[in-house]
Specification:
Strand content: 25-35%
Shape: elongated
Oligomer: single chain
CATH class of one domain: Alpha Beta
Number of strands: 17
Radius of gyration: 23 Å
Length: 398
């Protein structure tokens, strides 16, 4: 029997960030995950905007952003024309790269066990975790960060309530220039022309030397459109986005095309003694709305900075303690905002009602006006030469 304060089940972004933060705080923890290296997975492939200050509050920002590629500027387009060019803080990285970079920040004091959890039992005092080899762990708290996996949740009597099945679908692939050395933009967001295309947007952004594409659509998985896209992605994209060929100067899709549907669900009966759920284990978000990492960073930051240190200061791990995390106003606000954004973007993309058509045109005109203002007020001073990052004491770029 191993003894620890915190047993973290799952080594994705939420679990690895929890392990890194607890380890840095000197809290005894064990992380359990079957993968010695996190495998490729189509999930979040860039962070920026509201996600950066949330990441900063975890204390992991400086090191993690070293594994990303910054675009610096993004072009926004619709109807085949560039509407605006604006500064951007998007940091691109494949999900497995980002997770493995997070794992590298876990201090040696946190033990990582590369195996599966086959049984859990919880109570007001200590929790029991049984591993695939029969070994057992006794912990004061279990942090369930195992994403979409359901077996342990069933064991604990947790129920998943699906709010919207196949709410959105993400397609991930690489885009390369055809007949030219590079694509003409540093990053691009292309908004749809017609609601009939059932498209939220296409975003292109650099990861290293590769231009990565995420295409967000609202279609059932048995739609024959997905087969057409796999067979001829260039023609399918050109039909959906008139003028895209001209804007790119010619393009080709390379590498595997990965497709991932996303259900919106929440977990119920989760207010239990001895266990807390974070990230997708608690509730999913819509990838098109781009709030998944907002939720992960918020969950992990509140749990590790606020609640776990307070819980460990007194005996027991009863339900009253656990409820403080789920009722945390920062978490509640983030969860509600994420859910609202998922439904808003879907309606804004495919709803043909008069109100939503008016909102789409207002959004387009607003962005066009912003683009004109930026071009009008852009200073005429020459663009400074790119700055190299200073070298860290270990000899790596800081």
């Amino acid at each position: 029997m191993r003894y620890t304060d915190i047993a973290i089940v799952g080594g994705g972004l939420a679990g690895s960030a929890t392990a890194a933060m607890l380890g840095r705080a000197g809290i005894a923890a064990i992380m359990i995950d079957p993968h010695t290296t996190y495998p490729p997975d189509l999930r979040c492939e860039k962070i920026g905007g509201t996600q950066l200050p949330r990441l900063r509050r975890t204390g992991l920002e400086h090191e993690l952003l070293r594994s990303t590629t910054v675009d610096g500027e993004v072009w926004e387009a619709r109807f085949g024309f560039v509407v605006a060019k604006k500064p951007s803080d998007q940091h691109g990285a494949m999900y497995d790269t980002f997770v493995n970079a997070t794992r590298a920040l876990i201090p040696p004091g946190v033990e990582i066990l590369y195996t599966k959890v086959v049984e859990v039992a919880t109570g007001d005092e200590r929790q029991r975790v049984v591993l695939a080899d029969g070994e057992e762990i006794s912990a004061r708290l279990i942090v369930l960060a195992n994403g979409l996996s359901i077996s342990l949740r069933h064991m604990l009597g947790l129920q998943r309530r699906v709010i919207s099945e196949c709410h959105s679908v993400t397609l991930g692939f690489d885009v390369a220039p055809a007949g030219q050395p590079t694509l003409p933009f540093p990053a691009l967001t292309y908004w749809p022309k017609r609601t009939a295309d059932r498209m939220a947007y296409l975003t292109l952004f650099p990861i290293g030397a590769v231009m990565r594409a995420n295409l967000m659509v609202y279609r059932p998985m048995d739609d024959i459109w997905f087969r057409a896209f796999r067979e001829n992605p260039e023609a399918t994209m050109s039909a959906m986005m008139p003028g895209f060929d001209r804007m790119t100067g010619g393009f080709r899709v390379g590498g595997p095309i990965k497709i991932r549907p996303a259900d919106l669900y929440v977990t119920e009966n989760h207010r239990q003694a001895g266990v807390v759920l974070v990230g997708d284990a608690f509730a999913t978000s819509c990838p098109a709305a781009g709030t998944g990492t907002d939720k992960v960073f918020t969950d992990v930051e509140r749990l590790c900075n606020v609640h776990i240190p307070t819980w460990l200061a007194t005996e027991g791990m009863g339900r009253a303690k656990i409820e403080r995390f789920y009722d945390d106003p920062v978490k509640v606000e983030c969860d509600a905002w994420s859910a609202a954004k998922a439904w808003h973007l879907r309606s804004l993309s495919i709803d043909d009602g008069l109100t939503w058509r008016a909102r789409r045109w207002a959004r387009f005109i607003g962005r066009l006006a912003q683009g004109v203002m930026r071009r009008t007020h852009r200073p005429s001073t020459p663009t400074p030469a790119p700055q190299t990052r200073p070298e860290s004491p270990e000899g790596k770029a800081a």
